[in-house]
């Protein structure tokens, strides 16, 4: 049941993002920034964590989940380090995910030999 719930919630987030892409003149990069910032803001006001606890991977995998992760890292680092935690917290919290994306992306490029678009 957890898989179905994550699939449905993640699908709704992706569908809303696709509607935003289709119905507005916003560029994809700006929509990605909007998703990350909305996850951070919703995390800051305490809404995103209960939603993520309910939805599981359906809420933690999309970009708004990444924004919430950055917010939690900054909050924890500020509690421990003070003001300098504003600059360190996001990097510490997201380091494993970003490193994994880089490593697996590199391995995939070795296996599948990517071509440049023309």
From TrEMBL:
Classification via InterPro entries: Spore_V_AE, SpoVA
Spans through the membrane: 6-24, 31-48, 83-112
Pfam families assigned to the protein according to its UniProt record, in alphabetical order: SpoVAC_SpoVAEB
Species per Swiss-Prot/TrEMBL record: Dorea formicigenerans
Coiled-coil segments on the chain, per record: none
Keyword tags: Membrane, Transmembrane, Transmembrane helix
Protein name (record): Stage V sporulation protein AE
Gene name as annotated: spoVAE
